[in-house]
Structures are given as structure tokens and as C-alpha cells.
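Two proteins were folded this term; both appear here.
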Amino acid sequence: QFQLVESGGGLVQPGGSLRLSCVTSGFAFSHYTMGWFRQAPGKKREGIASINAEDNRVIYAASVDHRFTISRDNSKKVVYLQMDKLTPEDTAVYSCGVADIHVNIATLRTLDYDYWGQGTQVTVSA
């Protein structure tokens, strides 16, 4: 079955960086669009970055564009999220998701995703 395990979260000062990893198993990773999402307390889950399977096209939410970078390693079945220039507004639980097999584009829509990891906490504070 689909398994996704995130790591790399933690406490970081404003302006700092973190790299999140999502290790996957149980499915043909290279065939699926992958995404990163986050959910802050009291807010809805927000899609922030996605990468498709066919040609590694990416898409970002405006709130993270030019600061965050999504990438994937099909040989390791891992998707990464490099986060730079972090601000307190980036504080949230970050989760990775795997899209439906029929989704062949990068997408930030939660409804396009079928499976999620448990998430990793990112806290940006001085």
C-alpha cells in the first residue's frame, strides 16, 4: 500500500532554511505526480508545491514561489522540498501527497491527491 514518511522539520529562525524529505514505498513512484502541502493551526490544508512525473514540471503557490524548491529522485522514491528565506508565516505541519494516477500535471488541488504522509512540523521563530 501507499506509504509516505516525511522528515526534516524543526525549529528555525526567520530567514533560515530547511530541507524536507518524503520517503515513499508501496507504489510506482516514478509514475505519479507528487506534492507538498501545509496546514497551519486553524487553517485549511494548502497546496504549496507540486512536481509531475513525465517531465518534472513544477508549480508553486504564490506564497512560496521563489523561496521553495520541489524536486524528486525517482531512483530513491523520494520527493524533497527545499525551503529558504523562511518567515513565521511558514509555520505549519508539512505533508507530502501522491496524486491520483490519472493526474499527469503538477497540481496544488487537494482533491487531486489520494494519499498523504503524517506530516512534519516546521516552526519559524526567533
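Next, the second protein.
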Amino acid sequence: QVQLVESGGGLVQAGGSLRLSCAASGRSFSSYAMGWFRRAPGKEREFAATINRSGGDTYYSNSVRGRFTISRDNAKNTVYLQMNSLKPEDTAVYYCAAAALGSSWYAIDPRTYDYWGQGTQVTVSS
């Protein structure tokens, strides 16, 4: 079992920045690829970013590429999502998730993920 707890959400003006954190406890954090997803009001869950076990490979959705950066610190059992140049359309509940994959793999399909956090709200005002 892996428990994931997100933090760092809040209210920010358009053009601002936030950094989300996701702290993991339980089984070895470095055994999991990690992802960030989001769900905006009235919309389905959407992939945002993913990172492989070592942190050497990342992938982003077109909507956040160039503005968001995913990273991880395996010594601290934490994955981060640095969000810059935020837009009102980034408003959503953001979730981190863990997937038991091979060392070089990451995943954009939410069905691949085994564990999910409870989410943190990000609201971007115009």
C-alpha cells in the first residue's frame, strides 16, 4: 500500500505560480512512476504530467507543456508539480497518483495507476 497526500493548492491570480507537493508513505516510493492529473468542474479527469521512477524522464499534456514542471525527490518520498504562468482554465482539483511500472516507464492513462491521493484545489482567478 502507498498513501499519497497532496498539498500546496490555493487561490492565485492568472500569471502566477504554485508548487504542489505529493508526499508518499508506505512501500518504496522509488518503485513507482508518478503522475499528476486534474479534474475541472463539470469535466472528466485529465492527465497533466508524469515522471518515471528515477526522475530522468517526464511527459506533459499539451495544455501544460512549457508551463508546468514535474519533479521528484526519492530521498524525501515526494513528487512536485511546479506550475507557472497559470491560467483560469488550470482551475481544477489536482491529484497525484502512483503506478508500479518498470524503471524507465511513465504513464498517461489513469487506469495504469494503482494509488491516488485525495486531491488539492487550485483556483486561478482572471
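The chain has a mean pLDDT of 95. Residues 33 and 52 are 4 Å apart (CA to CA). These notes refer to the second protein only.
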